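We treat protein structure as text, and this decision shapes the records that our systems exchange. Because each token names a local backbone shape, the row as a whole describes the fold. An entry from our holdings is shown next, in its original layout:
>
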Amino acid sequence: MLKTLAAHIKGYIKESIATPLFMILEVIMEMLIPLLMKAMIDNGIDNPAGPDLGYIAMTGGLMLLCAALALLGGAMGGVFGAKASAGFARNLRAAMFERIQTFSFANIDKFSTAGLVTRMTTDVTNLQNAYQMILRICFRAPVSLIVAMTITMMINAKLASVYLIAVAFLSLVLFFLIRATHKTFKQVFEKYDDLNAGVQENVNSIRVVKAFVREHHEITKFERATLNLYTLFVKAEKMMVIVSPLMMVTVYGCIIVISWFSANMIVGGELSKGDMTSMLTYCMNILMNLMMIAFIFIMLTMSFASGERIAQVLNEEATIRNPENPDFDVPDGSIDFEDVSFSYSEKSERPVLSHIDLHIRAGETIGIVGGTGSSKTSLVNLIGRLYDVSEGVVKVGGKDVRSYDLEVLRDKVAVVLQKNVLFTGTILDNLRWGNENATEEECVRACKLACADDFIRDFPEGYHTRIEQGGANVSGGQKQRLCIARALLKKPLILILDDSTSAVDTATDAKIRRAFAEEIPDTTKLIISQRISSVEGADRIAVMENGAVIDIGSHDELMKSCKIYAETYLAQTVGNGDFDKKGEK
């Protein structure tokens, strides 16, 4: 984990080195001040010949210079520490986002959306704060502690042994506290995921919440999630809160012990007044630095859990990667499924797809129909390598899809989903996701093919109309047609319509299919639908059930050979039947 995180300091190494150097300068200057104070008392104020004002003034001036240099060191350490920690956080967020973009659907399935958001926000912020603490306090406090301990040992070893006992005692307490709280803090950030998931779900589905008057239910659910967080934080803080009183007891105990023994030593002539003053000053310095170290360990305990979660994302290897020598040429849009089986998990009892043999010619229009859960979408997900097959081979253009460069392959395969996504921006901005260099004329032509041009021109600003987040200001059917137009702008060899006209009326659906047949005859078209009227005119129609293709043929052929298909067609033309009401082959 540490090696993974440390690799992202790159670009801010100079700041990371400058910060501790300035902090060490601050420590050295601060450590000199008690020594100068000792000299002022012993040689200037308590001089046997009388107070030496010149020596006092000179020593006071040196003390002011040391204080100024310490202030400069602390300020510069803060500036460089802030730059280094903010840069480190920036690199982590960028690296995680870049890594997520390489994930296959199988990788993404391991992490919830809310979990990834928490990692990129709360967890990175924890590491940013911890890194700044490491650069500043983690260098300052131990160095200050060691220097102070060394000087006190030089002044009087017997008195300095009191500090050693205090440091050993507090270190032992910290060790056991960190072990006890690490597990709790890890649970805290997992609960953050649940909290963010609840907020995200509520905001995305706010119309449904209000339509069903479920605000009170959602508030109760949110309060329950925050209560879980509160309980875990209190549990951890109850253990950590013991640190502060223990520190204060130790500090004042050391002061009392040092004062007692110092007084006896001064009376016995073993110690000067200046020595006693500097010992007490170093006493506060040593124990306050120990308190800083304790605070650092609390912060590191929290950030260690965050670091583990971030490292999980950064170390996650994409299950789908480019081959060593990828093929960049996709000859045509032909598709071949050769004895293909597929499972989402190796632990699955039965595969999602079983022994699929399906051969589609370039430019052919194929309808895919079947009941809910018959794995229609799973089948087409294999074409663009969103998942890899468990057994068998999927070929595009006569070549195994695993031999292609991923970007090239996916650029030739356009997918329009039933649940379409539009992004904040103008209609033209969304259309150009299909082709960032598309002219406005090309966008208009694609929209005409998708039967979207008419409603776009009804907007006051036409193609420059701004789409709100999630496409909230367009209807479901309009959203689907915009997404079809966006896919067409890719000029793909293969176009997959995954129930993407479900929100479109039958007349518009027919216009879209007719436009496809006339305008993009060389593009292989796969149309997944529950509505037989959407696939009736396809060259061939594949009927799926339980992850297998149980029949394939034209509409007329299936009406004769497949009872499920025939019964569903009759039910849809007369009543409201669909493939979830089973018939027999």
Summary: The first strand starts at residue 335 and ends at 342. Residues 111 and 313 are 9 Å apart (CA to CA).
